[in-house]
Amino acid sequence: MESPAVEIVDLVKRYGRTTAVDGLTLSAAHGAVTAILGPNGAGKTSTVEICEGFRRADAGTVKVLGLDPSRPELRARVGVMLQAGGVPPATRCGQWLRLMARFHAHPLDPVALLERLGLTEHARTPYRRLSGGQQQRVSLAAAVVGRPELVFLDEPTAGLDPQARHACWELVGDLRASGVSVVLTTHHMDEAEKLSDHIVIIDHGRVVAQGTPASLTGAERQLRFRARPGLSLDELLAALPTGSTAKESPAGHYIIEGQVGPALLATVTAWCAAEGVTADDLSIERRTLEDVFLELTGRELR
Ligand SMILES: Nc1ncnc2c1ncn2[C@@H]1O[C@H](COP(=O)(O)OP(=O)(O)OP(=O)(O)O)[C@@H](O)[C@H]1O
Question: 222: how many CB neighbours lie within 10 A of its CB?
Answer without folding.
Answer: 19
